[in-house]
Automatic annotation (TrEMBL):
Residue ranges annotated for the Alpha-L-arabinofuranosidase C-terminal domain, each copy included: 458-646
Membership in a protein family: Belongs to the glycosyl hydrolase 51 family.
Catalytic activity as recorded in UniProt: Hydrolysis of terminal non-reducing alpha-L-arabinofuranoside residues in alpha-L-arabinosides
UniProt lineage: Bacteria, Pseudomonadati, Bacteroidota, Sphingobacteriia, Sphingobacteriales
Keyword flag Hydrolase: yes
The name this protein goes by in its record: non-reducing end alpha-L-arabinofuranosidase
Pfam families, alphabetized: Alpha-L-AF_C, ASD1_dom, CBM_4_9
Enzyme Commission number: 3.2.1.55
Domain of life: Bacteria
Amino acid sequence: MLRKAFLMLCAAGALSANSAKAQYTINADKVKAQISPNMYGIFFEDINLAADGGVYAELVKNRSFEFNMPLMGWDEQKKDGGDGRVEVINRATERPENAHFIKVYIDSATGSFGLSNEGFRGMGIKAGEEYSFSVMAKQEGDQNVKLNIELHDDKNAIIGKAELTPTDKEWNRYSVKFNASATVQKAQLYVWMSGKGIIDLDMVSLFPEHTWKNRPGGLRADLVQKLADMKPGFLRFPGGCIVEGRELNTRYQWKKTIGAIDERTNIINRWNTEFSHRLTPDYYQTFGLGFMEYFMTAEDIGASPLPILNCGMACEFNTAELVPMDKLDPYIQDALDLIEFANGDATTKWGKLRTELGHPAPFHLKMLGVGNEQWGPQYIERWKAFTKAIKGKYPDVKIVSAVGPFPGGKEFDLLNKTFRALGADILDEHYYASPKWFLEHAKRYDNYDRKGPKIFAGEYAAQNVVTGSPKNKNTWECALAEAAFMTGLERNADVVRMASYAPLFAHVEGWQWTPDLIWFDNLNSYGSPNYYVQQLFSLNKGTDVVPLLLNDQAVAGQDGCYATASLDKNTNELVIKFVNSTASAKSTSFKITGSKGYQKTARVITLRSDDKDAVNSLETPTAISPVSSNLTVSGTTLKLDVEPYTFKIVRLKNK
Ligand code: AHR
């Protein structure tokens, strides 16, 4: 018995001694696959206050009184003996796209009556920055009602103010700019009205002047910058389940999200009621971030646009409503029109509209998603109709097809088999699973059919508790498991052409789903460890995969290690990515053939923590973030020590 235990110990010792001296080989002149320039991208969905209350920089919540409770977010205020009342008017017959406005009666000649707006969990205001208040207004009485605009901090002190007197008896837009004197996380906007009379108000809005590219009514600069810093290959929008809607009525309809913002029909956000443990009754979609803004953002950050459209199916986790096949045409037409909107010139109907909206140049749309996470024969039927029409008119546009919400099982198998037989372009696979699953599936694509459809790993994130649990965190364990898995995506870059983590954004007080790539409050934001994994893969993807082997095998979990290598033909470098998912350090050696040798100093980027449960936060935003160092290379042998729980990238420059 003792002898058996001794032998087992020896065997274990031999194993770790072997692994401690693991000899990896890289054949630097044997290109196995080309890495798509679009490989690592972004999945955007308006979930967790990502758009309204997040990247869309509007500070006023329910600016046009279109929430189901039209005064949600607003409170009546009175001062100095002022008095009045508010009526909510529904003009749906005249303006169905913007049915509500308010009629305010100022009953007292002295003092002020007003309304305050609480913003999205408050309004983030920065000292010294300029803000632009605007409103659609119409004077109704004989006397003009004057507006006094104030920003209050959380102790009710005034930190910015302006005056405005609308003069017209017809609807008109008025605006005024002012500076803020303090930085406040949770400010409120007060709109005081004085002078006895009646005034109609709509589209009450407050924006920072400083937005992404300083576009008026634009996007939060710090958040878009985080996207730009990823140098993403594509931007998938607008979701996610939001494409589908809980019911068809609340599906995403791109045509309703372009043009004048007061003509974009607001609807409830499907995440408002999705999770009973994270109800968000004030979550609506104004579509201030609409398709034009998505396309422009993609262009700004150098990402290929990848819109996903509803295919006549509401979310199958919810109502699963279907449009009958003989009523599908308008949905298909939306897809055809979108391609024309993105790519057509000014002689086409939709290209002309894009030009009129200020963008004569095309957006170079090359891919389009038909449906989000659909499944079942009902999807196949609708997919066929979409595909026939799109390919008939635009044969070069690649269609992204769903294969259900899970990476395997009955729904996946049916779609995978059917779409392969039908010669689909790109299959959109989703996996939300445990870190263990990610580690165990690093070889998922090693045996995929090389001649079949390409793969878009369209949504993935490791879940440290269980998918959907509000206790999930963006731990280092999750990020490291994703890095390990992603070495498998890259090794199979001939099949896997695109990948994106999901969801993207979350407001620390307004989220419904966790984990998420980037977290923010009203003033600041930080990238999770998962963000840095995605960013490092993107910035160091290289152009061509070359074999990195251990004993002639792909490195996909032996002794807890995962690795891939690529050439970067643009910079003339060999890029090695190595993940040590274990608690013990690894001493590795790489024997590189097919190269004339490397410059003596290689660049190393390390992302790591000793604590698998560690997270980043608003207080410690870069606790886990990349650290650069140098390493000396001798000839074509590289010795690399890899600490426990570490993702390392080494860039060797050819001589
Ligand atoms: O990313 C959150 C949700 O997960 C997406 O909306 C959906 O596509 C998936 O089920």
